[in-house]
Amino acid sequence: MALKNRILSNGLASILQKIIRVVEQLFLVPFFITAWGAAYYGEWLTLTIIPSVMAFSNLGFGSAAGNSFVLTYASGDQQKAASISKTGFYIITIMILVAILVSALTIVALDYFNVFEKSLIEKSDAIIAVSFMIVAQLLMFYLQLMEAYYRAAQKAALSINLITLKSAFLIGTGLLVLVLGYGVIEFALTQFIVILVFILLYGLKGRKVIGLFKTHKGIKDKAILKDITSKGLSYLMLPVWQIIYFQGSTFVVRIVLGPEAVAIFNTVRTLSRSFNQFLYLVEPTVFPELQYYIGKNQWETAKKIFRISILGVFLMSIIGCILLALFGPWFYAIWTKNELYLPKAMWYISISGLIFNALWYSAEMVFRAVNQPKKMGVFGIVSAVISVAFTYVFAQYLGLVGAALGALMLDILLVILILPLGCKLMHMSIGELFKHGLEDFTSLNQQLKSKLKSLKN
């Protein structure tokens, strides 16, 4: 299949995935509020900080092994790719076992200090539900390595569609639990079952698609183990800064402003970033091809893919910001059934981060494509700490508006730090990015016009 056709297939699959992702983020919120109440739902969001931390962590050793696998396979060294797969699976399994132990100790410590006693959720229910959610997220650690099989086989669209199907099942089971009036234990249990079945079937299908393991048997290699471990630790900095930012800001708002403010802060952040899901269509669409051509050492094609991606996302983010400014408050009122009050200043500050977020997120994929995550991790941690600190200070004086200002700091800092370095990794300057990017868009536009004209004739 030609590059354009693969990108088109990836794009169509990504569109469906992001639609389901937006539904996953927005659809269940009114049902949560109706079934459990705003304050109880706010406590549930706070309670899920632990499994959320686990969810972010799957970008560590799994990403290191997965990206190494794709780059090695694309370069033609299939035996080493098979060994990377086996070694990576071994490391991820060890990581899961360690994470289970750490999580168990964390829950025991929280219970010892009576943290669960302070929650609106019954202590025993909270512990059981959190345990199910933790194990479910730990199983997802395998996803990054399994996903690499599809990318290396240039079947990224199939992978995206299977992940989308999993999300649809999560929404369906979650809705069923809430409509039937069940609580946090039943909700967590059904999510765990869906993820367990998905991981088993997704992994088996991926191995069949790549076909590598029929002809090559991997071995656990010490050199590969060392390389994956080194890069995996660097990748772990990526979820660390996201944990600091997302869970840290949620925790700060809970301490300073209370549980209902957590519900407002998180729902505003979710809705204001809902359009980001459409911007993020670009990354899964082009990333498999970008990484593949980097692995093949075909830099001119890779550069063109990168330039079109960055400028396309930038233009779409401007449109999204305008639409959210016009219609966001109206939709928020309907979405939350007027149960939560939306400060207008908070809303406009939150949506302004859309443009900054779109730029740095699109440039960030280069760090993963070349399998060099360290600097991205360092930049992220520094920016997240600064952002959470500002959130704490501003929230004390300006309430939710101040919390939104603090959160915005992260996106501004990351654009300043990441975009120039991302261009450098792609062997170009920011000036070249925009200059040649406009040329790429002009050429692409002419090709589309020519194709449409030929179809009419």
Automatic annotation (TrEMBL):
GO terms for cellular component: plasma membrane. The chain crosses the membrane at residues 21-41, 53-76, 88-114, 126-145, 157-181, 187-204, 308-333, 345-363, 375-394, 400-421. Its main location: membrane. It is a multi-pass membrane protein. The keyword Cell membrane applies. Keywords: Cell membrane, Membrane, Transmembrane, Transmembrane helix. It is found in: Cell membrane. InterPro entries: Poly_Biosynth_Transport (IPR050833). This is Na+-driven multidrug efflux pump. It comes from Maribacter stanieri.
